[in-house]
Write the structure tokens for this entry.
Amino acid sequence: MPVTIEPWRITGQPEIDSYVGRWAELAVLLVNVLAVDASHGRRVTPPQTGEERLAAILAGLAAAGRPAPGPAQTGPAQTGHTDTGLTAAGADRLAEIAAELRPLYGAGDRLPEAAERLNDLLARHGAVPTVYADDGKLKLAFHRSGATLVDAWAADMGTALAMVAGVGQGARLGACEAATCSLVFFDTTRNASRRFCDLSCQNRAKASAYRARRRT
Ligand SMILES: [Zn+2]
């Protein structure tokens, strides 16, 4: 697995890079937890009910060291909205969103098609540039003030992926190339050369390529 040499820079603006990185990584997490049917060489059944999905999301967030969702994390949404976190119904909606985002990863030639669906998602969830004050400092977000947590997440994740795909960096939305693994990742290597979700899939793919060579 290639080592990440330096954080990838879109704009040279650390605030925007950190926005894109944060939401692109959340999109990866939700897709992997809610919308893949194969992982590390095994078929898997994604969680099916709202409760299962909610538990899977919270476990995924905890494993990634991200705090569980609360209103304080959604930026401008904290003003005048009543959502106090994620519910089972919200988890169901996030599963739909994750399934819609999945085609953007490893899309290759199908990226324009996937981008059209992304545009629909951005419109549906009210993605809009917003500036809000946080601790007396202005911050940038891409969801409406008062948005629900699900709409806010969809708008911010979708915007981050649009910022990646729309500046010729769509190849950084990667899908594991190992057999029977459809996990996705955000490729931050210098030359966007990452091919596998992790080292175990890379080793598995190498071993099977070696066996194939031996046979011929
Ligand atoms: Zn993999």
The CA atoms of residues 9 and 17 lie 6 Å apart. Residues 77-82 have pLDDT under 50 and may be disordered.
